[in-house]
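Troubleshooting log. The previous structure file for this entry was overwritten by mistake, so regenerating from the original sequence record. Sequence copied from the archived sheet and checked twice against the printout by T.R.
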Amino acid sequence: MDLKSALDNIELPDNFFYNIQKYKEHLFKWNKIHNLTGAKDENTIDEFIYDAIYPLSFLPKTKNLLDIGTGAGFPGMILAIGLPQTKVTLVEPLAKRASFLQFIKADLGLDNVKVVKKRVEDMSPDIFELVTSRAVTDTDMLLKLSENFRDENSMLLFYKGQKVYDEVSQDLKHKVIKTKNRHYLLIGENL
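Regenerated output below.
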């Protein structure tokens, strides 16, 4: 995958690809020792990056976002690199992953990033305009986990697979945006 041409239609900061390259280099080094992600080759990582950043093509601008279970940075860290004006809180309970995220924040000078090394259930309540999550749990559980971090104006963006339709009740205000490998579940009262 040629990441630059794949993301050509998405408005990104000038230093996006430079920072993404540095992120990938660090991820490969850290992954050999700490096994942060199952993605081991550049093509897979590029697909993960594309997958993480694609929603910028349909999301409104937000002041802040919370990413539940960021892992090695998908989607939260990638979104933070692509949205320098958005305050991004990355929640990751595993020490090795949280340390990696903290290192990336420092190395890339990402002042818009806050890394929280705990489970989202253990965080103090706070309201975010956007709550994201990828590969953490099912939609009902994500709705429960995000309760203390959203209000009626907040939007939720869950990165899902084809089974998304089995996880969404019809009374939930939502849209599903499909790409080749991903179903993005967007939930919000203002849809």
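The chain has a mean pLDDT of 94. Archived copy saved in two places this time.
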